Amino acid sequence: MTNGTPPVEVTNLTMQYGSLVVMNDLTFAVKRGEVFVIMGGSGSGKSTLLKYLVGLRTAAAGAVRINGEDLTAADVETRRQSLRRIGVLYQGGALWSGLTLAENVALPLEELSDLDAAAIAEVVELKLALVGLRGYGGFYPSAISGGMRKRASLARAIALDPDVLFFDEPSSGLDPISASRLDDLIIALAESFGTTIVVVTHDLASIFRIADRALFLDISQRTMTALGPPAELRDNPPNDEVRRFLTRDSGSTV
Amino acid sequence: MDARTATGQKGQASADLRQHDGTLVAELAGTWQLEYATPRFEPLIEAALADGNLPHATNRTIGFDGTALGEWDSSLLIFLRQGQEYCESNGYTFDTAGLPGRITQLLSLANVVPERSVEAGAPEPSNVAQIGVVGIAAWDSVVSALTFLGEVAQGLVRLLTGKTRMQWRAFWVVVQSNSSGALPIVTLIAVLLGVIIAFLGVVVLQRFGAGSYVSYLVGYGMLREMGALMTGIIIAGRTGAGFAAELGSMKITEELDAYSTLGISPIDHLALPRLLGLFVMMPLLVVYADFIGILGGMFVAVSLLDLTATQFTTGLLSAVSLSDALLGVFKGMIFGVIIGLSGCFQGLRTGSDASAVGRSATAAVVLGITLIIVANAVVDWMAALWHV
Fold this sequence. Notes:
The structure holds two protein chains of two kinds. By secondary structure, chain A is α/β, with parallel strands linked by helices. Chain A is built from nine helices and nine strands. Chain B has twelve helices and four strands. Chain B has a four-stranded mixed sheet, with helices on one face.
């Protein structure tokens, strides 16, 4: 129904911490069904940008629209409806520690859908199976490994079949095998469900593997300095920072 | 050749200055270790330049000769960086050609300019401006507290109209931790409080030969004031701080954000069950504390005065009325709400680092106890006005 509007649209966004401006003039739109990567060095404000995208922070200037809706300005009901259509995978998983994995996945369904308990149980079972956690429903988050926690959190994020999924540093804290399994999952989700995916990461392997397009935040310029397919950006870097980032060049002569 | 030795002994770190083709060359020798005395660059060169026997470096270059260098550690690097700084500020060229490759590599690492220069912090605001800063911060706190109260009220309405479901599990956890979990500490404090009030009564009232009236003091003291007040302070310390720490940790692990981005209100899910749990449990704890405190007072009265337990009880029952007990229970309800609100408020507004959780827990206790005492005074005043 909203195929005309971009799932994520950012216009002239300024990001601020108190009076400190972190990023200026961010303008981009994510296309429906693509895997869009936000990259940049540590401290460049990637995760902060994600917080603006999902409506956890209010823009100091400019606007963020998710499926055409400004989350921070919308009324409660519109906001609820818009939030139903996005899923967020936080850096540490952010599973609710007092609930089992199954209860974690079930909570959004209980709160935001009209499904009865039996239907919810079926969905929970399916989503946990999709992320490779069949049979783990009764476990508490503290009892499983970091990689499993991230996947369980992904199961929760896709509980309501969102059409936009946000990932905050999905590979952080994971060994290369777990990280690439998670990448596989991201690609599979994007392809099979047609989900639009926005990933914040600085993991180069991951960027080249999954990204259709990537956005580069340059902290020294305090704005975005590149936008395009990562391989293209590597081969024809628009500026030296982007080239150094994508080729792991520290710039040191030592 | 004229040489100047900084540290004379053999084997020890030394840097001898000599002149070679118009260049001052420091001949590094010996073992350079932080544990032992090593030369400092500036006094060495100043002394050399002041000494007329050593001609000045005509091409204004300072170089090094590391061929006689023994083992070395960071002390040598510190010396060389002193040299580098000296050269920069005095217009000399710092020539590292004579140094071993490993040392020049370390020196250049230390000289790499940070990719982001350290931001010059905003200048300290003046004293007048600071008053404004404090005022704005205080106003922000008031606004966020009022917003929180409004959200809780909205949540309560949603709960009562069935638009959101009660989180019974969290509710029962609060009930459990504030019943069986809190009894030992409440018992201990309440008994001692009863004992203290009775001692006070015995000491003061016996002077007027009114020792038998100690039961009045214990009864009124526990039922109207001390039972509720002390229980409130205990629960603010253990449960209020617990709420703040628990919700604060959830903030740090992004569990609160996970609620928000799902469109689920953390107030409904986390704050309301905790508030209601305390609202139910505090009055019950107050009744228990009153009872235990009176027992403690009776024990002192009976053992120190010529009173029997029956006389004490009869005296107490003739003095106090149900309204005295109900006043205490009513205070308990108010205190429960205050403790729950302070704990949840501070927990939900926690910052994003680990020390912020500690600050929130502390703030919750301070706010809780302050408000309890203020509320106690207000309720007492009202009670006096309406002759309760």
